[in-house]
Amino acid sequence: MAAPIPAAATANPYVQYSNNSTGTATIQSTGSVAPLGNLYLLETLLTHADPGDALVDYGQVVGVSSVGLSGIARASAAATTDYVPVEFNRSFKVEYMYIKGEDAAGNSAVAYGDIVYVDSDGELNKDSINGTPVGMYLGATISSGSSASGPVALGFH
What we know:
By secondary structure, the chain is mostly beta strands. It has 2 domains: 17-31 and 91-154, no CATH class; 36-87. It contains no helices and 12 strands. The strands form 3 sheets. The protein has a 6-stranded antiparallel sheet with strand order 1-6-12-11-9-10, with no helix packed on it. A 4-stranded antiparallel sheet has the order 2-5-4-3, with no helix packed on it. Strands 7-8 form a two-stranded antiparallel ribbon. It starts with 32 loop residues before the first strand and ends with a strand. The relative contact order is 0.23. The model is unreliable at 1-36 (pLDDT under 50).
């Protein structure tokens, strides 16, 4: 059974936290890599066959439709709020990055599972229209219009 992780900001055990509050997209290298491509993902982000309880089970093939990847669940979920370890056929480097809560339309909160983009001015946010994808955000929600540092799985988009 997947144990609930206390806070989304610590959902990925492969993240090494550092502090970057410069207000730019400067990446602080952590050298943190999820071995064998394992990432802890919120159960509700996963697409899977329904084993009867609508929750993912150990060994199931799961999809992450928001990023077009699939993997194998390495634990069963007891609730939709559980973080399930998913093994992918690749590794993901997790970096702690400074992100602004906005998108193309203006201020917008950045939540766990959102894809993060870098704009031409170097700012990281949810602006998929004017930005280039960087990865999936794995931290606690960044309020609309606010800026904060948080973990991003690079290349997971």
